[in-house]
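Q: Please design a sequence for this.
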């Protein structure tokens, strides 16, 4: 089902029409979706279109989008007849971009007002850059608190190379705060090839120059039903649960395209491979100790042990994991360890976040709350 505004597509292609498409794949988050769409429509840059791709939600999403389409000619809506999967929905959205620039916005995130204006200005000023990156703010409703990222990237233009690729792996820009030229879609391929935007961004950085802003332009919101949530009962699509297998798949998806071809020397490829392996080990331990085990999912240790030696885990770590797995098979020990690890994980996570009422966070918190109130409550 397609619902378009009164203005036809040909009218939108006029010289004063959109130059950038913000794609929003969605599934059963009508209120968050409305907040995301309104954050795009509130941009100081006007030559945009918002394209929403509904993965057969079957709820209030269609009514919300019908209202938004009537209110603003830049909004378009397409609903699939059946759920095609989250990755395929992102790919569908990218395949239907017809503007020279595009951005991918998750339905539960939002943009700050100056994002597209700075992105388009920077890309116009630097035609050699294939994409624009801004810092994001992680806004956790669970902690609650705020975390800021990408401080390792000074503003400027970066050319592809091993050092830049490794840095993108270690401290990637999230797609929520990125605007791409259409050529990136052709060179990197579909978004669903990669489990995370980190892998997609690393491959893009290995192929193209890009421009970086030190400004914070996007808000990544962590909530009970987030992609990174640890409780599958809170997810509408439980298959998207982030598990230890996720870290393994991320490693396997990023290494082949990064090491293919002749753009890197042998030493460069070694550096990239070692960085990817180091991240895989770190991701595995993080997902085990902070996500899986506090939720009682001790079976995920088996996933880690399958590739532990190959991923470079030392003997002491492998022995520790085996002992932990053995203890996790005893019900009373499993419950006790899950509670203890849950306390440790909560304390460790809170250390990464500033409270909402910190002076520099108050304006942002007020903005997010105002955007949330502007979206009518779901029935």
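A: Design:
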């Amino acid at each position: 089902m397609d619902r378009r505004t009164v203005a036809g597509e040909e009218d939108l292609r006029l010289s004063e029409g959109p130059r950038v498409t913000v794609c929003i794949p969605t599934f059963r988050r009508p209120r968050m979706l409305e907040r995301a769409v309104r954050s795009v429509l509130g941009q100081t840059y006007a030559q945009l279109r918002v394209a929403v791709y509904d993965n057969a939600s079957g709820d209030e999403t269609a009514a919300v989008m019908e209202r938004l389409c009537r209110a603003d000619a830049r909004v378009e809506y397409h609903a699939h007849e059946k759920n095609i999967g989250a990755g395929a929905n992102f790919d569908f959205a990218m395949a239907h971009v017809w503007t020279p620039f595009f951005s991918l916005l998750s339905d539960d995130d939002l943009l700050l007002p100056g994002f597209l204006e700075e992105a388009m200005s920077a890309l116009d000023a630097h035609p050699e850059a294939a994409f624009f990156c801004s810092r994001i703010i992680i806004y956790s409703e669970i902690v609650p608190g705020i975390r800021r990222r990408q401080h390792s990237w000074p503003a400027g233009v970066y050319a592809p190379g091993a050092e830049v690729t490794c840095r993108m792996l270690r401290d990637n820009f999230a797609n929520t705060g990125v605007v791409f030229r259409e050529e990136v879609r052709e060179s990197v391929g579909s978004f669903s090839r990669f489990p995370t935007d980190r892998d997609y961004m690393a491959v893009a950085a290995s192929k193209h120059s890009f421009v970086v802003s030190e400004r914070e332009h996007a808000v990544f919101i962590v909530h009970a039903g987030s992609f990174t949530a640890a409780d599958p009962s809170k997810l509408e699509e439980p298959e998207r649960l982030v598990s230890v297998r996720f870290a393994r798949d991320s490693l396997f998806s990023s290494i082949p395209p990064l090491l293919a071809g002749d753009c890197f020397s042998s030493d460069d490829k070694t550096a990239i491979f070692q960085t990817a392996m180091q991240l895989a080990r770190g991701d595995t331990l993080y997902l085990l100790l902070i996500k899986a085990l506090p939720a009682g999912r001790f079976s995920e240790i088996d996933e880690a042990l399958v590739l532990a030696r190959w991923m470079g885990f030392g003997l002491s770590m492998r022995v520790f994991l085996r002992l932990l797995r053995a203890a996790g098979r005893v019900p009373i020990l499993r419950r006790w360890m899950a509670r203890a690890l849950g306390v440790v994980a909560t304390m460790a996570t809170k250390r990464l976040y500033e409270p909402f009422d910190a002076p520099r966070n108050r304006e942002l918190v007020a903005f997010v709350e105002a955007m949330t109130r502007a979206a009518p409550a779901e029935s």
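Q: Thanks. Anything notable?
A: The mean pLDDT is 88. Residues 266-292 form the longest helix (27 residues).
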